[in-house]
Design goal:
Blueprint: E1 11-16, H1 20-31, E2 36-42, H2 45-53, E3 59-63, H3 71-78, E4 83-88, H4 94-99, E5 104-107, H5 112-126, H6 131-134, E6 145-149, E7 156-160, E8 166-170, E9 173-178, E10 181-186, H7 189-193, E11 201-205, E12 208-211, E13 217-219, E14 222-225, E15 228-231, H8 234-246
Parallel strand pairs: 1-2, 1-3, 3-4, 4-5
Antiparallel strand pairs: 6-7, 8-9, 8-12, 9-10, 11-12, 13-14, 14-15
Helix pairs in contact: 2-3
Modified residues (4-aspartylphosphate): 63
Pfam families: LytTR (PF04397), Response_reg (PF00072)
Domain Response regulatory: 12-123
Length: 247
């Protein structure tokens, strides 16, 4: 029998990042998980290290690229005082992070579902009972939106899933098409696909992801969304037709 949410161990979390929007996103995610509580957020890794050394923190969500003290330097100085989840836009640091025994490694932009997996790993490490025995009976519903990086370092744009018509990949950029609006962000189509709920989102071509809810007509290997014709490649056609029949 699973334990109630009131019996869950409360994990004290600290978020460290030099970008204020990243702090806000993780603080929001933490507030949605019953067994996590936010101790604070800071752009100052020295301040964070002091809190850790005082024993005030159980888990640190830690950015790698920061001035004064990098995330990897922080790891070495903090020792075993707390558990660490690394957050970064740079996948090349993953191996070194795991060599320093981090709980998890989250690549930005961070989807709520991926954050929740990291939280569950931390719960399993910090709880005296196996994580499966102490999870709440129902997992909070993921948010119905994502944040995409804007055209400047500290700019993030919130996009509701319900507003996305389709997405087009352009080398290392993607274009999100919304009613009367086009947003461009620097990441690959595959990276974005990994953060989207599937369904309703489905990749139908090497260059396109569509929302099944927005398709108005399917004619052979062509989808019609508003005045846009989106091609369907043979690789994805069978899955598309199966999902259409199921819906």
């Amino acid at each position: 029998m699973a334990l109630g949410a009131s019996l869950l161990p409360m994990i004290r979390c600290l978020v460290v990042d030099d970008e204020a929007p990243a702090l806000a996103i993780l603080a929001d995610y933490i507030s949605q998980v019953p067994y996590l509580t936010l101790v604070g957020t800071t752009t100052n890794p020295i301040e964070a290290l002091t809190l850790v050394q005082q024993g005030s923190v159980d888990v640190v969500f830690l950015d790698i690229q920061m001035p004064k003290l990098t995330g990897l330097q922080f790891l070495k100085l903090s020792g075993t005082k707390c558990k660490v989840v690394l957050t970064t836009a740079y996948p090349e640091y993953a191996l070194e992070g795991y060599e320093n025994d981090v709980v998890d490694y989250l690549l930005k932009p961070i989807a709520f579902e991926r954050f929740l997996k990291a939280a569950q790993k931390a719960l399993g490490l910090l709880s005296p009972a196996p994580a499966a025995a102490v999870l709440p009976p129902s997992v909070p519903a993921p948010p119905a939106y994502l944040f995409i990086k804007g055209d400047t370092k500290h700019k993030y744009v919130r996009v509701s899933y319900a507003d996305i018509l389709y997405i087009e990949g352009l080398s290392n950029y993607v274009s999100l098409y919304l009613p009367g609006q086009r947003l461009i962000t620097y990441q690959t189509l595959k990276e974005l696909a990994d953060t989207l709920p599937q369904p309703p989102f489905l990749r139908v071509h090497k260059s396109y992801i569509v929302s099944l809810d927005k398709i108005q007509l399917v004619d052979g290997n062509t989808l019609y969304i508003g005045d846009k014709q989106v091609p369907v490649s043979d690789t994805y056609r069978e899955q598309l037709y199966r999902l259409i029949r199921e819906r």
